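sorry for the late reply, my laptop died twice this morning and i had to redo everyting from scratch. anyway the thing you sent over, i finally got around to it. pasting the sequence first so we're on the same page, its 506 residues, then the predicted structure underneath. double check i copied it right bc i was rushing
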Amino acid sequence: MNTGNLSRRQALGALAGSALARGAATPERPNILFIYTDDHSYRTISAWPEAYPWVRTPNIDKLAKQGVRFAATYNAAWCMPSRAVMLTGHHQFAVESMRMEGPYPGCVYEADKCPFWPKVFREKGYFTAQIGKWHTGTDTGYGRDWDFQLVWNRPKFTETSTHYYYDQPITYHGGKTEILKRYSTDQYTDWALDLIRGNGRPKEKPWYLWLCYGAVHGPYQPAERHKQELPGIDFDTPKDVFPPRPGKPDWAQKIAQWEKGPDGTPMSQGRTLTSWVRQYHQGVYAIDEGVGRLMAALEETGQRRNTLVIFTSDQGLAFGQHGFKGVKIAGYDANVRSPLIFSMPGTVPEGKTCDVPVSGVDIPPTIFRFAGLDLPWEMHGHDLTPLLKNPAAPWPHTMMMVATGQTFGSNTNNIPTGEKAMHGGVPWYVMIRDRHLKYIRPLIHDYEELYDLKTDPDELNNLAVKPEHQATLRRLRQKAIAELRRTKAGFVDRMPGVKEAHPAKA
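ok and here's the structure:
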């Protein structure tokens, strides 16, 4: 804090205010700021080498330099299950009683069957807060899971389900609901800053804040101040934007969300792929600015070293890759791979990258370990603190992500057939990473997929249909089944058979 231009009385007052804001947090029982973005691909952050060369996110990059960046993270296949994973520590197939109901995206759950872990943090002395988008049941948990909540309850106000930027119905602490006219990402940041500075919370407790941004969710509307950014950008058109896609499953041949313009340029709704990608990346600017302001507030209030900061997204988003337009869901990196950063100076190493693939279910047990709390129930993931201490440490665990469409919990025990097993043109599936190898098993009768991401990062060459890779395919198939058994997936013994590769497919 710079007190050079303040009177002694003003300086003492400012320092006292910082002390109050710091509260009771310590490195052993830290504050936790969990920044959670929406449809936000790792490719949009310049700290990731896969980003386009014109991408600039200085504040998120700085956060990565102040902590550990995970190169490959898979939280879930779309918005709702990803949030359910973060609130329970369970894969989608074990989030019991969560279900879609009423007009989309309406959904409900029973709190006794589907407890959310912030309730445990409240009981153990944390002040819990959530700001921004809510997408897991009309019951937002205020007064049970959250002490403080300024929330856009998307499942309840379904008629405003597309209002990601303006005109959101915000519910204040479980009470009144008012329409927010301001650009939502900016307002969420201001509310979070107010809380960080000590307003609206007790000063004697450590705090946990889940801050849920929505700036890059479709239809990708940036703030007015950013609409002229990135003029003249260019990039290589994804190689498989148009079918056919040799070696890929039958369902993947049907993905055709772009049409060819007069010169072969991919077009959608009368606009080029480039214009869509530009607009999408423009939306990231407000998030990056928000991250910078949040970190500055932690520094100003003396809380930076006592606050664990986590940055990730619900999943990624594809633009052109494999024929998709602004779509998540599919198990390809372009669609679902998220950024992930952990930062806490003095506790987490700085400027490190961890190449171990991790899953969304790993984040809740890691948060519990940082808070010094025992897990309240068995979670599916693994505490990541060994990797945060040494990103090159041996890691014996299998990274798994499971997508079961819009179905949750024991309702997934019996896998449906036909269109009921599809979501957005993509079948239910199980995906694992074994270091640089990725295996995807569809839960319909179709071809499996196997990619070597070291030699084929764009996932164009499906090794599962190659005769010389059948031993590797069988090994990863068994690893996936073993992980499903470990996590007690009800459908593990009911999975449909897979198609055998034909020589013509190879």
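The chain has one domain: 20-394.
thats about all i looked at so far, will dig more tmrw
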